[in-house]
Design goal:
Elements: H1 2-34, H2 37-40, E1 75-81, E2 84-90, E3 97-100, H3 112-122, E4 131-135, E5 148-152, E6 159-163, E7 169-173, H4 175-188, H5 200-226, H6 232-237
Antiparallel strand pairs: 1-2, 2-3, 4-5, 5-6, 6-7
């Protein structure tokens, strides 16, 4: 019976200690299963971009591309976007630069109007943006390339992030995503950055929960035996 007493103590007090976090784990896990991750990422709002034939006027002009300080690019990428075909030039020691693929005109750094146009053509929303904010620091909502523009739409609270140097859409954040991220922070117990699930607090809580569950399993045969009603045979023997 000593084992039963130890198991009872561990099960009762450890369960009490981690009860609230277990509720957070179960409730958030249930929410995660209800919404497909594609919907959380607003992928259903992305405007389809059809492939087109390359219309670069002069491929030889690619060799003339230079960075702001005259550096030759380490990598050139030709991309088809909703706003047209562009060239993204990446450098070893300079920020990436965006060029029009037809005229080779430098497009970056983008202004707020250009970022709003990119965001509007990226999604299927018919409404115009309600706010445009230049972002220079990362946050739990956005950890992409900086600086960037946060282009806000009214529907679903959707914010589309556009990188200032490359014109790429680097993130989409809706009210659903924000609530998902809030639950994720509770789930992994990282309430500040919402991304670290290897920290000691989470490991400790998970270990204590596991011990409490194992203690409950150990107690199960004792509870079944003590809670069994006596049969006629048991009464006769007594």
């Amino acid at each position: 019976m000593k084992l039963a007493r130890v198991a009872t103590f561990a099960h009762k007090w450890l369960a009490l200690l981690v009860a609230i976090q277990v509720v957070f784990w179960v409730a958030s896990g249930l929410f995660f299963t209800l919404y497909p991750i594609e919907e959380v990422r607003s992928e259903h709002l992305i405007r389809e971009t059809r492939a087109q034939a390359l219309n670069t006027a002069d491929f030889g002009a690619l060799a003339q591309i230079r960075g702001p300080a005259g550096e030759s690019p380490a990598k050139l990428t030709l991309e088809q976007r909703a706003t047209g075909q562009v060239v993204v030039a990446e450098f070893a020691n300079e920020p990436p630069t965006l060029f029009d693929a037809t005229t080779m005109r430098q497009l970056s750094p983008l202004g707020p109007d250009a970022a709003a146009a990119i965001a509007s053509t990226h999604v299927t929303l018919a409404e115009a943006p309600t706010a445009i904010t230049r972002i220079t620091q990362g946050s739990p909502e956005y950890r992409g390339a900086l600086p960037a523009y946060r282009v806000q739409f009214e529907e679903d609270g959707l914010a589309v992030y556009v990188a200032e140097q490359t014109g790429a859409v680097t993130a989409r954040r809706s009210d659903l995503w924000r609530f998902y991220d809030f639950l994720w922070a509770l789930h992994i117990m990282d309430w500040e950055n919402h991304e670290n699930f290897n920290h000691p607090l989470l490991i400790t809580a998970a270990a204590l929960t596991l011990i409490s569950i194992i203690a409950g399993i150990v107690l199960l045969p004792f509870r079944i035996r003590l809670g069994r009603r006596p049969t006629r045979g048991d009464a006769h023997v007594a």
